[in-house]
Amino acid sequence: MSKRIELQDVDIYYGKFHAVRQVNMTIQPRAVTAFIGSSGCGKSTVLRSLNRMHEVIEGAYVTGQVLLDGVDLYARDVDPVRVRRQVGMVFQRPNPFPTMSIRDNVLAGVRLNNARVSRKESDELVEKSLRGANLWNEVKDRLDRPGSGLSGGQQQRLCIARAIAVSPDVILMDEPCSALDPISTLAIEELIHELKEEYTVVIVTHNMQQAARVSDQTAFFNLKAQGQPGELIEFGDTEKIFHNPEEKATEDYITGRFG
């Protein structure tokens, strides 16, 4: 079941470096939310804070609250590993495990979580996950071949299947199409539309047209000055952000005047 995410007074730091300040937003379930903004404005940092992935960098921390259906993901008794199971992530470049088969790639996260599944259950899970990523028909006859033998677009959909397999509530995507050709990009965008029927989806993209095509809501981040923390400038329905933004900085970015 997809879930609502709320950020309340969120500030993000890397050691003494203040990366992002005072983010407040509510990300709706079963919808696609796009984070846009120029390089270095903090959009990927905010994305990674949603499943505590930024914490893999030493000294990184968050103040404020990140709530998943009211549960603070940063509460002392919350296990980051469990958070990352609930909130899956797909990275900029496809990263299937190169020595693993397609089948084992799909099951990697399930096994990492020490879930015990029978051969029949794993077969069903592999098929369900690959179907969910619109990849089953292309790979069903070569499940035992290495995932690294797939095309770039297929590899990215395999990574999405791997994320789906652990039954997350939320799927995060950090520029999932930046390394792909236009045809593969279209396939991923169509998949994102389908994924929101079951999941809360948050995507970072530099591509304005992509944000306009795939998202229901858009958050625009910006640096007011070099050396200052990134800030959430405007957040709302994608239609409004792109056609009738309230902030001049938003309009300037979307119309290509800067960024």
Descriptive tags:
single chain, 259 residues, alpha/beta, Rossmann fold, 10-stranded mixed beta sheet, 10 helices, 10 strands, 25% strand, PstB-like, transport
Helix-strand layout with pairing:
Blueprint: E1 5-14, E2 17-27, E3 32-36, H1 43-49, E4 60-68, E5 71-72, H2 80-86, E6 87-90, H3 102-112, H4 119-132, H5 136-139, H6 152-165, E7 170-174, H7 182-195, E8 200-204, H8 208-214, E9 217-223, E10 230-237, H9 238-243, H10 248-254
Parallel strand pairs: 2-10, 3-8, 3-9, 6-7, 7-8
Antiparallel strand pairs: 1-2, 1-4, 4-5, 9-10
Helix pairs in contact: 3-6, 4-6, 6-7
Task: Write up what this structure looks like.
This is Phosphate ABC transporter ATP-binding protein. Keywords: ATP-binding, Nucleotide-binding, Translocase, Transport. Pfam families: ABC_tran. This protein is of the alpha/beta class and 259 residues long. It has a single domain, classed as 3-Layer(aba) Sandwich (Rossmann fold). It is built from ten helices and ten strands. Strands 5-4-1-2-10-9-3-8-7-6 form a ten-stranded mixed sheet, with helices on both faces. A hairpin with a 2-residue loop joins strand 1 and strand 2 (17-27). The radius of gyration is 18 Å and the shape is globular.
